[in-house]
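In the laboratory, one determines a bound structure by crystallizing the protein with its ligand and collecting diffraction data. In a computational setting the workflow is compressed into a single prediction: the sequence and the ligand go in, and a structural description comes out. We illustrate the idea with 5,6-dimethylbenzimidazole.
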Amino acid sequence: MPQLSPAFADVIELLTILPDGDEAAVAAVRARDAQLTKPAGSLGALEGLVEFLARWQGRAQPRLDNPMVTIFAGNHGVTDQGVSAFPREVTAQMVANFTNGGAAISQICALHEINLRVFELALELPTGDITQEAALDDKMCAATIAYGMEAIAGKPDLICIGEMGIGNTTVAAALYAALYGGTGADWVGRGTGVDDAGLARKADAVDRALARHAGELGHPLAILARLGGREIAAMLGALLAARHQKVPVIVDGFVATSAAAIAHAVNPAAIDHCIFAHVSAESAHARALQAMGQRGLLDLGMRLGEGSGAALAAVLAKTALHLHNNMATFESAAVSGREG
Ligand SMILES: O=C(O)c1ccc[n+]([C@@H]2O[C@H](COP(=O)([O-])O)[C@@H](O)[C@H]2O)c1
Ligand SMILES: Cc1cc2nc[nH]c2cc1C
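The predicted complex, in structure-token form:
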């Protein structure tokens, strides 16, 4: 196995020496939950969401005063291979749409009072075409991971990790194939809506990228640099910074999950503070989640990206916390408890 570049030493440390969740905070949440006017367990996954917030915020009374969606945007040289239904310039155009309020994510966030921050990553400088060369050199990859850590500035109490980048479902497919095995055809899907010929070009591009970089894919971070993208590296940084600053994470769809997959491949415990918002309609997403022993919270047939699935999961988390904080107890409402 080739040696991992020393450029990644700090990232490896952040992936390895990890704070644990706060089990006393979880116990406090469970004790209150047991008193609320409902049969135990009847709010299902909503109860788990409140425990998740408590565990990773380290608070017996978790808060969602400042939830945040972050969108990392990057461009990809592999679009030269005809792998997307849309042209590369759409990435920058959609970034403008996010800030101008016209995108789906803008409206989800506006409706539900969730902050939205967009991180534009050198859109005029697409990464290398992975069928021909490395996406990023190791130092640039490490620097982009570090930049992604900016996401937790402003102290969000929950961060949703999303992305925008024409061509990035091909890049994510290449990452999964390198991490978990299989061929391009096993991991590609229709992304923004490619036809059958486009789907075949995607599978072929992944296979050629794997062959081009064979022998240099011995470490998950080397895989990220060779086959990844700026937004995926930055999402990894955001995810890591969140863990170290007690910010729970909701990961969006097929592409955002690939950043978590890199972390998980280095150290499975590094994603313990993450939940996966949904199962994307991108066909291999379910398989990628399964490879990490994870499940998506929702299954809405969505395949938009831009943090949209994660934002909807955050809406559920807000609802779950509101119930936890505001429902009556059996005692306060004079409701009789369970028999026996
Ligand atoms: O994350 C997902 O589940 C997902 C599934 C399909 C498409 N996307 C979005 O679509 C873009 C990539 O699609 P493509 O076809 O250009 O590779 C990118 O901006 C992603 O946010 C995202
Ligand atoms: C219009 C459009 C919006 C998107 N949002 C995330 N990825 C996208 C891709 C396209 C093409």
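The chain has a mean pLDDT of 98. Keep in mind that any predicted model is a hypothesis to be tested, not a measurement.
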